[in-house]
Structure formats: structure tokens, C-alpha cells
Amino acid sequence: MVLIAHLSDLHVGAINHMEKTLLDAIARINGMNPDLVVITGDLTENGYYLEFLKAREYLDLIENPLMVVPGNHDARHVGNETFEEIFHDRSSTLTNDNGDLTIIGLDSSEPDLDYGKVGRQQQIWMEKELLKAQKNNQYKIIALHHHIIPVPKTGRERNVLADAGDILQSLTDKNVDMVISGHKHVPHVWRVEKTVFVTAGTVSSLKLRGKDKNSFNTYKIEEDVLEINLNQVYGKKYLMARYDDKCGI
Questions:
Q1: Average pLDDT of 69-97?
Q2: What is the C-alpha separation between 78 and 96, in angstroms, rounded?
Q3: Which residues of 139-159 are buried (b: 16+ CB within 10 A; e: fewer)?
Q4: Which domains does the chain have, with CATH numbers?
């Protein structure tokens, strides 16, 4: 069994960023002791250097292996360069200790623009990484900031990937098990063919729709079972979806 915690959209530096909420969420995640933790972008509000330094302080509190990918807010004000200096390459891979699951992180941001794009070169790299994972019989997860499929209850669609069709075809052709993203601050689950697409809410921003609350997702992956849960930072844990036919770990 593998447990993954998925946070998104911290927005450190924003007026509506809630520091205590983020710290309490991290404490909850540490208490869960997940195998891997993934953060899908918008660590900062404006991509400023000092915002990245503060975000790094928060993320250093996470006690488990961590993957971070940038979001559109992180690419503002040459934040794309700062991200690499303070964190790591904007695209990377992370494998669990048993070596039976790999997460491929993509940079879907464009400097100073809100829309997303993976791009041809990164798509080729992703496909090569997926082939490696397939040869190793690994469970395959893609992590990026922008959603590939529109999310309900988020208004007029403006920020889906510019090359969503090409990326979607690669993911389904390569039998990706799960795609996780953020950006819209609205948790949701889609399933397309054999691939599950999950978006996370915002963990620490007050930019919430309706009565939504700050939250993060957890994924419990076992043989033939994928369980997706929404965890409110101050509230309940909800089962978002369960699939009993997932050829997993």
C-alpha cells in the first residue's frame, strides 16, 4: 500500500494566505506519515524571491519525500528562475522506496501568463519517462499545476492547457494511472478511459468558491484499489472516489 498526500495553491505572500492553516495542514500530513508528498504549484502569489524563501521554510517542515512543481503564479517576475534556485528543476521524477510507483512532475507554467502549456520538448521527455516506468512495471502518476480537463463549477474555462489534446492523448496511450493538478481551487475527480484525473483545492488561500473549505487530497493505492479522499484542514475527511479495478501496487 502507498499513501500520497497532495497539496496545492498555497499562495504564500498573498493578503488572503492563511499561515496557520498551512502549518496545521502540514502537521496533519506529518501525522499521517505518507510515503510521498506532492505540491502542484502556486506556492507563491507573485513569484517574488522572498515569497519563495518563505515557502521553502514551510515546505522544510514536511517530513516525507517531497515533489514540487511550479504554477502560473510562481512564473511571475522571473519566478521561473527563482524556483530552480530554491527548489529544483521545474520537471522531475519521484519514486517511492519500494520502486513500484513513480510520479512525473511537469512544469505547465509560462512566464507572466496564466494559461498553461506543457510544450513539445517536455512532452517527449514525459513520454520517455513513462516508457521507463512501464518497463519497470510501476504505477504511473503525472503531477502538474494546470488541469487538462475542465473542472465543473469554476466558471468560464480560460486556463486549461493550450496543448491539452496532445497531452491527453499521450497520457491515455501510455496508460497513465492518475493525473493530479491544482490551479482552480476546486477538488474534483474525472475518469477518462483507464486514467483518473484529480484536482485539489487550495490548502491555505481564502480564495474559495461558495462554502468550500481549505483542503488537501490523499491517495491510498493498493492492489486493484485506488481511494481518493478530500481532507478539510479544519473539518471532515470525505471519500471523493474509489476504484476497485485499478491494477495498482
A1: 93
A2: 32
A3: bbbbbbbbbbbebeebeeeeb
A4: 2-246 (3.60.21.10)
